[in-house]
Records
---
Amino acid sequence: MSSPASPLQMSAGQREALEVLSRSQAAPHRQVQRAKALLLAADGVANTRISVQVGVTPVTVRAWRERFAVEGLAKLGQVRAGRGRKTSIPEEKVQQIVHDTLRTKPKGQTHWSCRTMAAHQGVSSATVQRIWHNLGIKPHLVDTFKVSNDPDFEAKLTDVVGLYLDPPDRAVVFCVDEKSQVQALDRTQPSLPMTKGRNATMTHDYKRNGTTTLFAALNVLTGEVTGRCLPQHRHQEFLKFLKVIDAEVPKSQDVHVILDNYGTHKHPTIKQWLRRHKRFHLHFIPTSSSWLNLVERWFRDLTDKALRRGSFNSVPDLITSIEEYLEAHNEEPKPFVWTATAESILAKVRRARTRLDEVVNQ
């Protein structure tokens, strides 16, 4: 039996470029696979395990390792030698472009463009674009994030994910939240319908005709949503909504509610009501972790499909549209299936915190 391969050697710059490529949504799938395989190889994972995780054969993994050891990143996105146009850019120049893209900024600007990097490195803009495309680097885009600083992050995360993956018997699990200040926006001019060769149009400006707050509870098992539009966003309205849930769920079942840390959810009046209704159990997600509440995913669909392109003359008109969407959704509900384990999420959060600490300490 042969001994496992030793960890693949790579520089910090190469690892950073491969990490970017491994997360790319636009790079070719094969390149993303290769980037993930090379990163696992650098971590000392055996070729057979890499092949299972990435979805290729062990022979392919070994070939990728050997090719990277010889060629580095220069030909990562190209076909094998002899099967296509040969690169005229040496590995050192590719490394410099990648390093400067990820680690530096042009004077007076926040990020590099193909032209500014090409002038900086003395190559063509097409060369820079090709390198960025092959490695999935997109300096013109930026993603937003927030790592939770909740001291009880791990306990809250484990609790909520446990409800998703292994819900208790004889109980209903709801994801609850409020979509507050939903505006009844009316366009200043009539919109034009879509026709052949032309998109639908609507004016960029609008008139505000008031707001409503949508309280929603997503049944994690069935995907059905209970919703109520109420005029304000206070503990009084939240209590009314809890009573709606209480009336809809059979008395023989416990009710587990996943929700955020908004003050109205912890108001003394709410706590008093919960003491009288023992079957209700509240589970609070960590702060700055709205992605953990599945009803937020449903809110996104509501906005995209019923609100963003709508025109509402009044708040009742807006409420009618929301209720119509609710009714249509509940006719054929589809649950959102949670698959990530608490351990995998915690591992990602630890890596993010480590990276943030490195940036702060630089």
---
Amino acid sequence: MATAIDVFRHLRCPICKNLFVDPVTTGCGHSFCQRCLDQHIRMSNQQCLICQETVYTQRSVNTALKTILQEFLQVQMADLSLCTGGRGEIPCDICEESLPLRAVKSCLTCLHSYCERHLKRHQSLSRHRGHKLVSPVERLDEKACRFHGRPLELYCKRDKRLICTLCVKTGEDVVSIETERARREAEQQNAIKELESMTNQSENKLEDLQNTVTKYQESSDRQRAEGNKGGVC
């Protein structure tokens, strides 16, 4: 199985730690942003930051490296829909801060959110196989127990609060968060159905009342009409 290469790491300037801008390569083979290297030389007596070799003043932009960088950025920016920016989107905690991708899962054990690429790396490690992955959530630190630092996976019925597995006491009535969520959703659905039933009953009673009023009005009109006929000479 081929191992992925972190190309992004090789396209960053060792001085400013950002992507190269007008990259230049020294005689010793190390590359820097042109501006960063010029500033470094003025402060360090023309010595390479990496190997301390003397850096000569005659330098030109490394066009091959600059082209690679441009093509790399075009590929990375081709699908901006993967990047965060919309309201409610959760960024990947492992991506570069300058352009994080949108998280697809959050790990309640690691307390990190992962994009598609970093999620595969997370799942490839055997020690992570038992970790609980959920849909991306904000403020993951609030999902951990403040006493034990473990994920809040259980619900204590007595105290009506979320707890971790280490918070459980003997004989305590606890259920999983999923079970409690399902119970509350069922209660909500039952309440909605009951409200709908009451509404339907009210509507039926109103319809019956309207029908009664209509019948009474028709009967009254009929009696009045018959009375008028009987009074004619």
